[in-house]
Description:
The structure holds two protein chains of two kinds.
Chain A: H1 3-20, H2 40-49, H3 53-57, E1 62-63, E2 66-67, E3 69-72, E4 77-80, E5 83-85, H4 91-111, H5 114-119, H6 121-137, H7 140-148, H8 153-179, H9 184-192, H10 198-218, H11 220-226, H12 228-234, E6 243-246, H13 248-251, H14 276-279, H15 300-311, E7 319-322, H16 324-327, H17 339-360, E8 365-371, E9 378-379, E10 384-395, E11 401-408, E12 414-416, E13 422-424, E14 428-439, E15 447-457, E16 463-473
Antiparallel strand pairs in A: 1-2, 3-4, 4-5, 6-7, 8-10, 9-10, 10-14, 11-13, 11-15, 12-14, 15-16
Chain B: E1 12-17, E2 21-24, H1 30-49, H2 68-91, H3 95-100, H4 102-119, H5 121-124, H6 148-157, E3 159-160, H7 172-187, H8 195-203, H9 207-210, E4 219-220, E5 226-227, H10 246-255, E6 269-270, E7 275-276, E8 282-283, H11 287-298
Antiparallel strand pairs in B: 1-2, 3-6, 4-5, 7-8
Helix pairs in contact in B: 4-11, 6-11, 7-8, 7-10
Amino acid sequence: MSMSDTRQHQAAVDALYDEAEHWHVNTGGETIHAKRIRGRWRTIKWVTASVWLIFFLGPYLRWDGRQAVLFDIPNRQYHLFGVTILPQDFWMLSLLLLFFAILLAVATALVGRVWCGFFCFQTVWTDIFTWIEERLEGTPPQRRKLDQEPWSRAKVRTKLTKHLLWILIGFFTGFSFVAWFTDAPGLWGAFFLGEANSAAYISVALFTVGTYVLAGYLREQTCFWLCPYARIQGVMLDKTTIVPTYDERRGEPRGRVNKGETAASRTNGDCVDCNQCVAVCPTGIDIRQGQQEGCITCALCIDACDEVMEKVGRPRGLIRYASLDEFAGQAPKALLKRPRVWVYATILAVALSGIFYGMSALDAIDLKVLHERAPLFVTLSDGSIQNKYTLKMLNKMPEELAVRISVSGPEGLKLIGAEAPVVIHAGGVTPAMVFVKVPKRHLKKAQEPIRFRVEATRSDGLVVESERTSVFVGPDR
Amino acid sequence: MAENNPFPGENNTGHVWDDNLRELKNPPPRWWMLAFWASVAFWIGYAILYPMWPIGQEPTQGVLGWSQMKEYAEGVAQITAKRAQFEEKLAGMTADQIIADPGLKEYTLASAKVLFGDNCRACHGSGGAGNPGFPVLADDDWLYGGTTAKIQESIAGGRKGVMTAHEKILAPVEVDTLANWAVQMNETAGAGGSPEGWALFKSKGCTACHGEKANGHVVDLPNGEFVSVGAANLADGIWRFEPGGFESAKHTILYGVNQPNVPGTRDAVMPVWGPDATRGGVAKLGPEEIKKLVVYVHEFGGGQ
Lengths: 477, 304
């Protein structure tokens, strides 16, 4: 190193420690003003956060002349692009929830709390809020200073702008949420003319306040004390899970970079104790204390540490994505050799195939058969036995259908009351009452299976149908 | 206590237990106090707006004038208004017209279910399933006719059939023959009665009420209807008096139906639901209610 190089190097180190004086671990008592720096993980974080653009823009997608995704609660119809799902198909929702729950588990088992660090709305919205704060109020020291300053016109203006922007974001969050449940473009007019549903106003108000408080004030305290998933995910980690970790063996004993020290004469570890990892941490923890509940694994400390290592001329990766096994000197276990991967993958596959089955088996019409219980059967004057059924026919098509009803069962059976096709209205259930008559001598048992079948021809010529087995009851033999 | 406080200057109350457990005078958290005063404000507001203080016979009424009974009355008014559109239409229609209109039929069936449950179910069973001695209404066996007009007549005017007690008229062997014959007729739906039975049936005057064909039709009219006195149809698979069979048939033959001063006689009375002359014309059910019940009973599955 030349003299000027050394001097420059020394100046950089000095600046580092000057700044370090201002940082300390926050335990929740004060607002955390995390330093924002550029870096690889910072970029990745922006990319992952942008997934939430779907939340804001999704309601405006169109499909076949209507809203692509619309959860129409008043009409109990849920449109997903080409598919319309009625409450009767909602068992698929439980599979979908199972799928995402297990996806969360498997992701956590492999790479830690990626959800928390990169995708969670609490993290993302807080990130946006603090980004606005930084634009308006400056770096963390400036912000802290501003907070302590007496109120001035400039301070009021800055703070007012910030809070208005926050509330605006909260409002758009609520508005976009509501837009998934109603005609989105129409909501704009209706909402501001005071014509929207009261549920819309209440939802938007709740979301506005919720977003403002959670992302503006509670921030990391939400992850610490409010969020159950943060705690649940903690137990999903194992020794093979890779999470941002401080390499203690390499870093310790930590110590300041001393003037005039050479690589050979150095007695300290690689950690220069600059506290930059703490400075950039949005939850205010010190990663060097090891895995902890407060760490949302956002990896911003990796960026910070790598930058410092670069500055002081030491290898990067003092804080890096690594597993406990790796630090214990064990080779990382291959993905396919981990039981968790297999168990989780199986559950994922089951849930997914269930959803695929459900989607492919969505009948255009659905038949339910209710057997009359009072009386179970009636003896007719010609000695035959009559049963009464209420057929509940669900039409999932957007058009009226003329349904033909037929039935198969014991020999000699006769269907009464369904001679003409029954018209069932679109998107709803139409009941029809029918009687089935069977000569007594053809009944072998007190209860015999009987199968109803309904079919209709759609306007495009396609025949849709549904079948259901019920029971025909006769006298005890 | 306070004089020798072991933890002075700590803002404690001076109450110390077990050397170091002490009660502090920390104020409750701000949010808690806010919530507390908010609930007090709510309570005051509630007391002003709604009935609350039990003073005298009645509680204070509150400035909103709300009461449970008012809310109930409003609910009833709402549902009555909703029903009115159907009721108005029903008023000018016959039972047959209602049955021909799917929407009105559905409405009528739903509202008549309550009427049937209140007035008819005790004897005829829910769904018209019948009870021992009380006819099944869900079958197609109508002693007085199963058209809407006949059902209307049966409900409004009531029914009371009679059958002579034959204990002193027929010899025991004749009673057995006839009872056996009735069982055969029932099992074959009228096709297989024994010749001796038929002979007795015709010679002992049973045809006067049960008809020539033993089907309860005294006279068959050209329009498909028939004249009857309500005598049982012996030529079908249905027993008028459950459980049916030899003993049951014998009992009916011996002691008859609705015979005064005959112990063991069958009771079979359908009360009058329309205007009742014996009670000065008071009706248990109005014409609209009876009409709904006619539709309801007709649609049990056996209506003609």
